[in-house]
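SAMPLE LOG
Freezer: B-3
Tube label: C17
Construct: single chain, 401 aa
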Amino acid sequence: MLLLLGLLVFSYLGGALVAPGQATSIGLPSGSHFIVLGFLLGPDALGVVPSDAAASFRPLAIVATAWLALVLGVEYGHAGDRRLSPRAFLLGATVGLISAAVIAVPVYFAALYLAQLRSDDARLLALGIGLAGCETARQSVRFVVDRGAEPGRLLRLLEELADTDEVVPLLGLGCLFAFAPTPLAGLQVTYGGWLVLTVLLGLVLGLTSALLASGFAAAEDTWSVLLGAALLGTGIAWRLSLSPLSASFLMGVCLGLGSRHGAELRPLLARTEPGVLLPTLLLAGGLLRLPMASGPLWVMGIALVARVAARCALGYTLARVARSAPERRLPFGLSLCCTGSASVLLSLSFALRFPGMIGDLVLSAAAVSGVAGDLLGTIGLRQAFVTRESQVPPPYAVNAS
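STRUCTURE (predicted):
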C-alpha cells in the first residue's frame, strides 16, 4: 500500500512537472532518469522496494503500458493539429526498420557466440533489443523548441521522425508475440493467424469505440468507452499471449482517424500520459535486473555501440540530404539517440511476456541505451538546434515554414 501511495504521488508530480504544453521541460528528454531512480529503489540496489512488492505490480504495468500505447496511437502521425504527409510516414518507417536491423544483426551474433545462447533465444533477444532501440523521442522536439530552436528543414525532419517511427517497434512487437505463442491461449491457430487476430482485435475495438464515442456530445463524455475498451483489449490480448501494446496502438489509430472527436481526444488523452508514464518508468526500474556474467554484458555493450552508430549514420545522411549546415549533421545524428516512451514500454512488455534472462536482458539493454542515448542526444540537440542567440522560445509554432 505504501508503494502504491508513492506511485500515486509520483503520478501527481509527473502531471504537474511535465504536463503537455508546458513552457519548459525537466531532465533528459525521455525521462530515463526515472528508470534509474526506480532501479536505485529496487531490490538490486537500495532495497527500499522488495522484489515481491515490485512483482505484485506486474498487472498494473501491463495495463499502464497498453494505455500509453493507446495514447501514442491516437496521436500517431500528427504534429500538433497538423497531419503529416505520406512522405513523413514512409521516412519514419524506413528509418525505424533500418535502425532495428542494424542493431539486431550484431546483437544476434554476440548472443550466439559470446553469451552462448541457443539460436532461437539469440534471435528472440536480437529482435527484442532491435525493436527497443529504433525509436526517436517525441520529447526531443519540445526540448529544443523550449530552448529557442529556430524552425527550419532540420527541425521539421526531427519532428517527422519523432511522430512516425514508433509504428515499427509497436507493430513489430505484435509480430514477435504472434510468432512466439504460449500454451496458455488454448487455441490451435497458425502463426499468421495470431498476427491477424492481434490486428483484428485492435481494429474492431478501435472502430467500435469510435462509433460509440461519436454518439456523445463532447469528448470528455467518452471516458467510460475509452477505459472499458482499453481494459477489454488489454485483457484479451494478454490472455491469448498476444501484444496488448500493438492492439492498443491500432485501437488508438482507429480512434484518432474514425471518431468525430479525434482532434479533441488527442490533447485529452495526452494529459493522462505524464501521470501514467512516470510510475511506469519507476516500475520498469524496479523490475530491472542487470546481468553480471561477461557474455550478457558484451551483448549489452554491442547493442549500445550498434544503436549509437546506426542512429548517427542515419542522422548524418538525412541531414546531408536536407542540405543542412555541415557542422550540424553529426550533432543531428547524435540527437536521434534519444529514446522515446515506446522503447521503455516495449522493453517492459517484453520482459513481462518473456520472464527470465532474455526478458531481463532486453529491459536492461533498453535502459542502458536509453540513459546513454539521452546523454548523447542532449548534447546533439543543443549543438544542432540551440544557438547562443536563441535565449527565448520563438512566438511561432514548430511546424511553421
